Amino acid sequence: MLNQRGSVAGLISARHSLPGLLVLLVLLAGCAGSLPPATHSGAETAVLTDDNFLSSQSRQRLADANGQSGYYLLDSGQDAFLYRAAMIEAAEHRIDAQYYIWNRDDSGLHLAGRLLLAADRGVKVRLLLDDFNAEGIGELFASLDTHPNIHIRIFNPARNRSGWGRWVSFLMDFQRINRRMHNKTFVVDGTAGIVGGRNIGDEYFGFDENRYFRDRDVLALGPVVEGMADNFQVYWSSPWAYP
Fold first, then answer.
1. Is residue 36 part of a domain?
2. Which of 203, 213, 215, 229 is in Cβ range 3.0-4.6 Å of 198 for a Cys bridge?
3. Distance between CA 200 and CA 194 in Å, rounded?
4. Model confidence, pTM
């Protein structure tokens, strides 16, 4: 047991710094406060049909698969980028994307721009990003979210999301904020999907001269894509996902 001089109260008294410490404690308490519950609307869902280009391609390629799924390994970063871009162009109804990182670099901006053009032609776009790496691209996605066909949610955001307050919030609310979302899925029209280790950024696609992360992805067709879509929906509807 600490004596009076060794206690917090004693230390405060000895240093005559009570006002400053009180202000600091109030600020820290504000940073660590709980977030209000997320409110979700189902208005952004799109009705999916089998009458679209990707569904037709999937049926042709799996005609002899006896109900099994088909896979294509996306080994190179260039293939991984090009297949994502092509799937956006082919989308007719809905794009569901879920990532831990989406960088504000050439590849990230290009794919975000293609999502915007897809939304302009009537495709419903849903994008779920982890909050931990979203600060640098937040303004861009906040702008995209104003489009009536684009809906963006952030997984488990810090109460204070910029500057020193972000890190204080992390330290004071570590148990909650340490719960991150590392999922990386890209599903188009509920028919074709990409899953694997790559986030969205130049270093994942081989476009960064200094860094190249040798991750891999798989392009999937068939019944397995339904599971990918269902998994996205679980996270999208989660109370941890905030508009």
1. no
2. 215
3. 12
4. 0.81
The range of the structural domain enclosing residue 193 comes to 41-242
220 within 8 A of 69, measured Cβ to Cβ? yes
Give tens-digit pLDDT for 69-85: 999 999 999 999 999 99
Please state, in angstroms and rounded to a whole number, the distance separating the CA atoms of residues 234 and 177: 19
Per-residue confidence (pLDDT) for residue 181, from 0 to 100: 87
| Residue 104 DSSP SS3 | coil
- The backbone torsions φ and ψ at residue 217, rounded to the nearest 5 degrees and listed phi first, read -130, 165
Together in a domain, 25 and 50: no
Q: Is the pLDDT of residue 14 over 50?
A: no
Q: 173: helix, coil or strand?
A: coil
With respect to residue 174, please indicate whether it lies within any of the assigned structural domains: yes
Number of independent structural domains in the chain:
2
Are 194 and 200 in contact by the 8 Å Cβ rule? The answer is no
**What are residue 219's DSSP bridge partners?**
72, 194
Q: Residue 179's pLDDT is what?
A: 76
Q: Are residues 220 and 194 in contact, defined by beta-carbon separation less than 8 angstroms? A: yes
Which pair of tokens denotes residue 77?
């970063």
Helix axes 77-90, 106-120, angle to 10 degrees: 10
Cβ-contact 203, 168 below 8 angstroms: no
Residue 135 confidence class, pLDDT cut points 50, 70, 90: confident
The answer, yes or no, to whether residue 11 has pLDDT greater than 50, is: no
Q: What are phi and psi of 141, to 5 degrees?
A: -75, -30
